[in-house]
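Appendix B, example 12.
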Amino acid sequence: MFDTILENPLVQQGLGYGVVAWDLAMGWLLSPAAWSQFGLLIVAWFAAVYVSKFTSRKALGLLTPKPEAVNIIAKSRRFVMLFLPLLLPLFAYMFTAIGEQVTQSIFGASGVIAFGKRVFLFVAARILVR
């Protein structure tokens, strides 16, 4: 019974993809370049948190109109304030892109950090949808 399941072409294709994913994961876990990229992702995230908090505070001070203001400029400022939560993933993406260039020049590979950039874009998309 188990042999007939393993003979299925769809199962064989899935197992092939699983082996490729396993090899990629093991390559990342055993590579010093990958560990440095993981470290850079963490540093980029914490730097983005710090910079976005600082920038958000300053931007809120500049963009917040008086409560009684109803003119077009006040409405525009309130609209721009809706996008302030996007600063965190965008700064993270920017810092990660810088880290990607550094690791590419040092190690010649930047697969882990490129994956991290995609995760930060996914976070930005989720924030935008909310």
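Helices lie at 2-6, 9-30, 32-63, 72-81, 87-107, 111-129. The longest helix spans residues 32-63.
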